Write the structure tokens for this entry.
Amino acid sequence: MNKYITLIILLLFSATAFAQNKKKVIEYRFPTERDDSIATENYKCTYRNIYSLQQRLQFYPFNKANKILLISYDDTTVTQNTTPVKNRKLDMTQVRESLVLNDLQIDSLTKILYNVGVKSTDYWFQLADPGRKCYNPRNSVIFLNDKGRVIDYIEICFECHQDRLSSKTIKNWASCESKFELLQDYFYWTGLKIGTIRRAD
């Protein structure tokens, strides 16, 4: 009886091993230069009219803000700047430039944030930037309520292409190759020079 059991076990083991050998093995293929070129092209920013102005204004915190400010700051005595907000109050003594956005400027900002994205989702990486390790922001978008208190803010370091959101509730946006350059140009266009690092000037 034991011989039969042993034989059955051996047959089952052999059948399993055979079935495993029959599985198609997918060999890893290193990306070619053409693959890299396509991925790079697909990661480029492109404008898509995904959201109307009304839809964009419903994204938090745009839908809660009574006033939206662009600010710049640069404390040269510290190694890393931070948005000058304490206890929901903006410390204007540390703000070097500021601008209250009008309707047209809000429209332009939300277009860059939410209607500009990748050319195609067929990419497997984000382009590396060697400066991303040195985060030292000098610009922020401030959202104020009707009492002048800060609801939330978006902090941006144009030098290292990074941003930080003061709350996870803030509607995030898709990244793409030149998103930070577009935002940088936008800040510069509105008149804020500090932190925008215009290399051509």
Summary: The longest helix spans residues 2-22.
